Protein 1
Amino acid sequence: MVRTWLSCLAAALLAGLAAPGLAQRSTPVPTPGLAPSHVDAEGRLVQDWGTLGIALSGEGVRTGPPSVSAVSVAPGVPGVRVVRDGGVVALEKAVFRAPVWPAGLDVVTVRLASNTGRDAPVRLTVQLPQGARVGRRLVTLGGRALVGLPESPTPVREVREWGHWDEATDLPGWARPESESDPAFRNIRAGMGGVPIAYRFSVQPGAAANVFLGFCESHWQAAGQRPLVCQVEGAPLQEVDPIARWGVHRPGVVLFAARDANGDGKLDIAVLPKPGAPDTNPILNAIWLFPAGAAPTADAVVSGRMNALATRVVDVGGPGDQALEAAGALLYDLVVPSAGMELTLLVASPGASVELPGRTAWTPETLRAAAARVMAEWRGPASR
Amino acid sequence: MGHEHRCRGCLSRRQCLQFISGAAIAATAASGELAGAAPAVRDRGAQSVDPASLRPAPRVRVAAALLRMPTPYWLGWPGTTFDLDRHSRQVHAHIEASRRALGIDIEVADQPIQDEAGLNSLMQRVAGSRPDALLVVLQHLACWGWVDRLSREVKVPLLVVSPVGTSFTHTMVGISRRPGVYVVSSLEWPTVEDGLRMVRAKRMFEETRILWIHGNQRNETVLDWLGTRVRQIPRHTFNEWFDREPVTAEVRDVAADMRRRARRIVEPTADDAVNAARAYTTAKRLLAAEQANALTMDCLGMVGARLVPTPPCGAFMLLLDQGITAGCEADLFGATSLMLTSYLLGRPGFLSNPVAETAKNLLVSMHCTSGSRLWGFDKRPAPYIMRDHSESSLGVAMQVLWPVGDAVTYVRFTHAGEVAVDTGKVVSNVATPPAGGCRTAIEVAIDGVADVRDVLPLHHQVVALGNHRRVVRSFCQLYGINTIHSPAAAA
């Protein structure tokens, strides 16, 4: 008995010692001189921010051991292929480094095909680091965009009562309001790269509300630099140039007579850059929702004195703000045909972030072409 | 294998040789007393690099077709009196002239498109052959529905020519503002040729590999939107190559010519000119070895570390004048902005720092490197005064004298997907001293901006001679690139 126990202990110790060896069995993703990423023995893509794995579940799904190999994943494109027997579906993952300036990005293409000759329903889980937030088209972690998601299929989402559903960035403490005002004016969300700031609130279908959007510009000293376009459902568009209207570091609010115009039980609010604006990064400091009958003055709203009457006060980009979708795994419920289907993810490589899909000219096709073109001529230093 | 020089926008080999040989008389003087920082390396008979071989010369393929309704025409524009046959002949002649002038392949459909079947066939051909653009010339007002469809379904840039009498404003305005489309509603064929130049310029961006000389890494990436390859190489590469660069006959000739062409020489010595010429030949050789077409490097860092006896300013003027983008301070998007003026406008630019002149309400644009062939690569150069690099008092940097009263255009890629565009008029050339800063300095009245302090606060905007706002904005629209401009009144 003691001998058996000692044998188990020795085996465990050996396994422990072997663990680093397993980690070393990783396969590098070839790059033209850029910081490398790897695919580990489990088929996970290893980056400086953590790992990205793909798992399948569902009736008849089996998780066989992965086969990882360095191959050409497309003509002239070196990469890494992971093949796994998934039971009712075949799973193949191809990874290559697209040499996108400045640091590149890894393109992960997941190919699924039904092995049964008929459609196979499966759940695909994209395994992400703890704390990663899944947005509409981006997965972020601590403000860094890690994964760009395809337009379709759409992931399974758990939706909250209200929250932002954009790709903007929290910038707490960004603003320096110089007049007495609600503390919410100190924080903002910013649509870096020109992305809209978007919020959604659950309301009674068709309901009306008075919505105040709060702004305080603390970067520009002159008007005309960051004009904004505000879209509040059911209300006319309004253009706002915070400095022209209130001045530098001066908080102010704009009132909208909002209504759930399409009757879907959701009130949508968005702040966008005005087309042609020199600074295309929209900002938003605060949102107040009041019942339709309540019409407080702008000064009273700015001061925060009317917060108790509001049905919702959002300290945009502040500690009480939240995403519309709850944090969690990135899940897809898919029906896999025997002809197969693909899912392409754009993954941040070491030291880089991914661009919001739609704000870049890159497509999976052009990324492959760029990789083939660069790798075909990649070589060491020239000599005289 | 013979090399066909397709590009018409830069100096030919013959022009280049004339440019160099014109300095032969002064060569002796320049190669005489070389003291101080004079290069010790002797001529080892190195082969000269033809600058024409460095400029990208992509193959550009454009498909073209005439769109019309079944004949004979009756009521409805262009009307019964419109001479279709004559117009068709004129279009074919224009296309042939543009093909030769721009060095691009334009394949015109054998028969005009005059029904849905013909349109479908055209779209299939385009989908199969994937030309760099599709050019359609309208011969009837009723063809705009087809243009609408082409603009939505054809996956290549679309150039639409609508001679006056084949559109109303309201039929073309929506389509004319769509990304991926360039509409000419005019009888002016040169404006159509502008569109073909846009297509060629985009292909030149795609064919360009730019050397990004800074840091200590070696890697290669590709720019979004433009498709330009960026090869980063360690900064020390340039000064090591420079150290080994011999004083060849070409170097002596270039140095002598640089001095001969100067309206006045203030600080630089003959040795400085030779070193500037060595920087020029070093850059060409490095570009050729790396199979690259453009460069931008951390020149200030190299000067600050005293790794080179001369900043590359004088050398960069020569490269810019020959259609080779050479940008300052490893500013990659400054360099792509220089490429834009070179590839699209056929002239060198002036990458500059902005200074607000508040007494006169003018923008002063200053830097130590400006091209001199401001009117075009094949046009006469602007005069220059030979100076040193102002901040370091080293080497050669030209004060290029810009033509007072002429229009200018400012362009700057803020990133690969956005270009800032402004225009203005040159008011004066600023001398240093009394001003400090950089050697080439021009005062410019910016169009449509009430207060000069409101001009977009962008570093390294590139100035090109002439008002090219329409062409630059159209190029950006054709390729889905956003444009911005300074606010008219910001206060």
Note: Helices of chain A lie at 2-24, 242-245, 298-303, 364-377.
Protein 2
Amino acid sequence: MSKLLEVNNLSVDYITLKGAVRAVDNVSFSIEEEQSMGLAGESGCGKSTIAYSLMRLHRPPALIADGSIKLGGREILKMETDELRKFRWEHISMVFQSAMNCLNPVVKLEKQFFEIYKNHGITNNRSEARTLAEELIQIVGIPKERLNDYPHQFSGGMRQRVVIAMALALKPKLLIMDEPTTALDTVVQREILQRVYELKKDLKFSILFITHDLSLMMEFCDNVSIMYAGKLVEQAPSRTILKNPQHPYSYGLKNSFPSLHGEIEYMEGIPGSPLNMSNIPEGCRFQDRCFRAQDICFKVVPPRNHRGNDFYDCHNPMGTLTGSKN
Amino acid sequence: MDKKPIFSVKNVVMDFEISGKNLFSKKRTLRALNDVSFDLYPGESLAVVGESGCGKSTLCRIAMRFYKPTKGQMLYHDECCHSFRGYALKNYKQKVQMIFQDPFSSLNPLHSIYYHLKRPLQLYHKHKSAELKKKMDESLEMVGLVPAEEQGRKYPHQLSGGQKQRAFLARIMAIGADVIFADEPTSMLDVSIRLGVLNLMNKLKKEMGKSFLYITHDIATARYFADRIIVLYSGHMVEWGDVDEVIKHPVHPYTKLLISAAPDPERETLAKLEVADDVEKEVTMWTPESRGCPFQNRCPVAESRCRETFPEAVEVKKNQFVRCIHAESI
């Protein structure tokens, strides 16, 4: 399989009065065609900043300091504004966290779909656009008559499905989902995600799935990247992260959701609070919260250890001893 | 159990008028809670799970005296909490407290953490300054905000979400609450921080004998934290009992649906959601005129009987009750 998206050495700074704060530090990853990749980490670790940079939707004070983002061989960071406008949505589209705010409340859905088709030069004919929209809205499980409704007439889950239908309107190659279901109930959440993954099989697009809920991600993604304080600390197939994580942070994340089966046992989670990005310590960024920290972790930035396509950044990895849950 | 319940809810019905506020619109009534009863014992945690709009938060708000129930009573130490006046009311407000979902807006951004702790101590305990400081530091240490001296001087924006929720718990401890209504206390927090807060609540429950009503839609954390569980659907209690029994052997179709929807990384294939295929995947609006089982429209095994009556509770196992006509046959 060929690589669809390649991100190399991406760094994003936030300019503050006290100087630049590097929110994303030297991040490289790639997504293959028809693959779904998960990006996990706590709030404030830079997940959403990466998502916004991929579409160049970031706004000052955020600034891409370095790196390259290539989609299908084209460099996104060098595009002109006009080119970029066509590029967004046709090649990469995004589903945001709060679907409630993505739809225009005073415009009927039909017209909102029509505007997408018009602005991207698909069709200028209303009835043609209507046919296309009907087709699209039915694949996310909403009856076509409801195109005549306003967004407030839909429930939260339905609105999120409409937003997903819109994101797929121009058949993009990459769909970025930034915490798409955080505000929804578990039943609705599962239904929407299962629908998206069925569509992925039919329409053949790749997914970048961003969430802090690792349990959900491991169920739906092929590959998982774990991010901590602006850096990728581990990347591996989701099975490996589940069974045999190497970085203590991945281990902690994996162990922070209670299981539905088996005995109820005391679980620790991850102690401490997320790192303050304006005050980055020497050595490993996870040092203060890590239960395996050694002297070296406080001095030297951990090197990248490769295992095939996977990697982890740690001086004192978990090894294979922690293979099972106990 | 021979223990006396500290807080009990007896057949509470809550109706809201959702229109009819002016002369011309037709009067409509929404029944948010229908015949809800349970007991909460000292040192026990009871989870209430259900989707949004099922009446979980209404339950909290009635207990906080925001609303008066249409029918039924809420009893605190065998006295109706809506009839308290004067000293009894002050005592009730001290002993029954609530944790909110959003830690970012439940603390006053203009005041330090010390201020938040100082006010209840002054109001309810009349401590003098030296003692006050000691008490404040004690409650901060209890919730794991150490060093207390440093954390207490901080303002809410200097704390992370989990720390804010801890600070809020410290405030509740400083007041001296016995019954704590936790309305989705962890749903705004990161997964990694969530467990810390749950463990803290567990510690307060075990070591200090506090009672918790834990409201959530995350059934996995309910299993981790709670002793008993109530599954609420559209204002009706559909299944309740010991948390392990209910989650391992669910009987009501809605409980089964909730459990199959919970994220489970061990699962190999996509989960099959046992639900009748309807379009509006929402809680049905329940009115006083509605009849039958609230889950009838989404239930995969619904029959014509389900549209007529809502069955009485059946004890399918010791300490596990279900309200479903299919319960006997399972």
Note: The mean pLDDT of chain B is 85.
Protein 3
Amino acid sequence: MARTGSHTNRGFYVSIRRLVELPAVVIWNALFWTYDRATWQYDLMVIAILSFIWLTPPDLLGDPTATGPGLIGLILNYIQ
Amino acid sequence: MSFTGAIGAASMFPLNTIIRLFVQLRIRPNFLTLVGVLVNVAAAYALAMGHFVTAGFIMIIANIFDFVDGKVARELDMETHFGGFWDSVMDRFSDISLFVGLIFLYAELGRTDYIMITALAMMFAIMTSYTRARAESIITKCKVGFMERPERIVLFMIGAFTNRMAAVLWIIGVLSLLTVADRVYYTWRELDHTQTGDFT
């Protein structure tokens, strides 16, 4: 019984450890990019990039050719 | 299928028609490469003049030539070592010309900050190609890092069509720097650094 309990505890700690390490693994995999095109990881990266491009207010970046609050600013203005 | 895969597959329909047309006309692939660069220079001029949407359309045409040259060479059985070399060199000219167009525009607008950002993005973009080429002279393959030429081209088009070039330049700069770092790290790892003693 004790052995089973120890196994359960070890499994629990391994799961917790994996959960704690997950953000670090995700960040490392995003920084050290080894995925091919047309994978779900690639899709996620594309979504993140397009979100930055279209949601960041041009004024925040000091864009020389575009002005205005951008999509986030428009949504915030609408909510207010 | 991923959504980027679906977009790629959908784009192949018109491109295959263009490839068939060029194959039937027996146009030399190296000539297609050259035309692609010249059209890209026209896109750079439009960027320099601040005509972003026009530049976006010209970039589409330029990159059709750029994309089909290799496929046409394969179809016509005209693949040569020089063709590969010529393509790589012309790609660098195309890349640099777009950045130079933007540098001219920002200089005209008196924006030194964005001249620097564009220049740094250009430097890192060129370094991504250089690191891979140099790495593959000593290791078999060095295809790591996100920001390669197709990504850069699509980002330029998105920036041009939606007038969000500043954000695009930040993305190209940061992700190109990361790609260079990835390639340096990967090559160092592949060369078994523990034996050579580099950095240890």
Note: Chain B has eight helices and no strands.
